[in-house]
Amino acid sequence: MKSLTAIFLFTILISKSLAQDIDFNTSKVSIGGYGELHYNSEKVGSQPTKSSLDFHRFVLFLGYNWTEKWSLKTEIELEHNFVRNGQGEVELEQAYINYHYADWFGFNIGVILPSIGLINEYHEPPLFFGTERPVYHNLIIPTTWFGNGASVYSNINGFDIKLTIFESLNSDKFSFSQGIRPGRMKGYFPDASRFLYSARLDYLNIPGMKIGGSISFNNAKGDSTNVNLIISEFHSKYNANNITAVFEIGNISYDSGILRQSFGYYFDFGYDINSFFNLKTKIQPFIRYSDINTATKTSSGGLNEKLFHFKEIMFGISVKPIDEIVFKLDYSERTRQSDNRKSKFINFGAGFMF
Amino acid sequence: MIKLIFLLIVFYVNIYGQSIKDAVDKSIFNCYGKDVNYISDKIILEKKLKREIEIKSEQNFFSDEIYFYKIYSNNQIIGYSILDNVYGKSMPITFIVMFDINGIILCSEIIKYREQYGGAVKNENWLIQFKGKNCESDFKVGKDVNTISGATISVNSVTKGIKKLTFLIKELISK
User: What number of helices (H) and strands (E) belong to chain A?
Assistant: First the structure.
């Protein structure tokens, strides 16, 4: 018995030394971040042109992995460079514990980003066209949408699945002009008697392609309203052979309150022309078409359903001397559908990630 | 009862401890065929050579050590493989690149991916793009190597990591 035990112990020791020998993980702090400076010029209808220079976002990412499986991810953001009297914002955009057992199972808990749409989780400036994020990701999917919650995820055979339980929206804040955007609680004492439930599925096994969608349910509540809503969206991105093409479409249906439906979509097509000139710098002209209506259906009907409906065409260019730095220039024209009022925007930006 | 617990511990530690080794075996046999055998060696990189390769590949080595495999079939060398790591956003990505005797890539595989985002670099369809490349090939992401939406950091990191090993294998073969 003793010798048997000794053999077992010896085996354990050998196994342990093997394990250490070929386990590459070490506890480590990681730092990252991104930022973007924007020049925005807009001319709405016949009003005089307004322009501003805005360091829109500066974000610091700080991560720490205790072990191969347990890690922490945090992101702190300063918006508009300065905070005073409700202008500018400091946000704890992410702060979660990640347990990554294996590719087929992991979970997050803390301040997280719900996995809805292409940009909410991947919002660094070099990753999307246009100086500002697509207007779809402002008004239909209210990016950056962050708050308290937990998620479990799995990646099996190219299918990426994520289930999220997340803080509820405040339905009192929903508006014709911005949909659910003002209802985000941003982790600030959200109502814990109810949650938003979200499921997302992506397929990644086609080279250069990401295709998927999500569906989310929330019984949103405020002091005076209580609205059941369903957010459904489809997203796809192709990024290969010098082509970048994006299509996203989203719908929010509400069972009560002033809003009954918000709907929008956009597509991007860009081509990297550096291959023609054999340059190291990536030069990507692009075109974007968006159709957005935050008040597609309303309880009152009539003009409101047209007043917030606009179509927008954008032409622009992204120049990336290296993948982590981008300079952007774009021009867009937005036409309000109720009266054909045109708004024109010229934006220039410089962004980075590290 | 104690014996059973010991057995369970041994079983667990073995599974855990050898998962990288098992994955390496699987990759080598998949690439070169079931009948091969190999000799593995942990190599400490010489400082000057390491720096030269880091400059050429625009990426630092994960550490001073890599694992080097000589692949034999019927007692003849038929290829070489290198097991190395690169950093993803914050965790190491362990990968192996398998070469023929001239340093041309036959196969590459991700042995272990440790993060929730960017795991699509494990995709065979993406990794197959490196087949046929060597130290003189272009590895520009977006042009020579397709990018993956949602895996930008991993794609850049692994691509540079593979490029780096094409320079290293050239040196190891010539020695």
Answer: 4, 16
Residues B6, A331: Cα–Cα separation, whole Å = 69
CB contacts of B117 in chain A (<8 Å) are 121
- Asked whether residue A6 is domain-assigned, the answer is no
How many inter-chain contacts (A to B, CB under 8 Å) are there? 124
B143 within domain boundaries: yes
Q: Which pLDDT does position A16 carry in this prediction?
A: 44
Residue B1 lies in a domain: no
Structural domains counted in chain B: 1
Report CB contact under 8 Å: B13, A68. no
Residue pair B67/B41 in contact (Cβ under 8 Å)? The answer is yes
Residue A17: inside a domain, yes or no?
A: no
pLDDT in tens, chain A (354 residues): 555 555 554 544 444 444 444 667 777 899 999 999 999 999 998 888 899 999 999 999 999 999 989 999 999 999 999 898 878 889 999 999 999 998 899 999 999 999 999 999 999 999 999 999 999 999 999 999 999 999 999 998 889 999 999 999 999 999 999 999 999 999 999 999 999 999 999 999 888 899 999 999 999 999 999 999 999 999 999 988 889 999 999 999 999 999 999 999 999 999 999 878 888 899 999 999 999 999 999 999 889 999 999 999 999 999 999 989 999 999 999 999 999 999 999 999 999 999
Among B91, B125, B129, which would you mutate to test the A interface (most chain A Cβ atoms within 10 Å of its Cβ)?
A: B91
Contact B152 A323 (CB under 8 A): yes
CA distance A138 to chain B (A): 20
**Residue B7: inside a domain:** no
Domain-embedded: residue B118:
yes
Q: Which tens digits make up the pLDDT trace of B118-162? A: 888 998 889 999 999 999 999 988 778 888 888 888 999 999 999
CA dihedral of residues B1, B4, B6, B12 (deg, nearest 10): -140
Nearest Cα residue in chain A from B144:
A241
| Residues of A whose CB is below 8 A from B6 | 5, 8-9, 12
Shortest distance, CA A134 to any CA of chain B (angstroms): 16
How many domains is chain A built from?
1
Pairing relationship of beta strands A105-112 and A325-336 according to DSSP bridges? unpaired
DSSP state, A127? G
The CATH number for A142's domain is 2.40.160.10
A2 part of a folded domain: no
Q: Which residue of A has its CA nearest to B125?
A: A207
The rounded distance, in Å, linking the Cα atoms of A106 and B15 is 19
Q: Kindly determine whether residue B149 and residue A19, on different chains, have CB atoms separated by under 8 Å.
A: no
Joined together, the tokens standing for residue B6 give 């010991």
Do A22 and B13 make contact, defined as CB atoms within 8 angstroms? Answer: no
- Domain, as residue range, for A261: 25-353
Candidates B2, B91, B143; nearest CB to A65: B91
Do A141 and A256 form a contact (C-beta atoms < 8 A)?
no
Helical H segments across chain B, by residue range: 2-17, 19-32, 47-57, 124-127, 152-174
Q: Which domain holds residue B57?
A: 18-174
Instruction: Report yes or no on A5 lying in a domain.
Output: no
Contacts of A121 in chain B (CB under 8 A): 117, 150
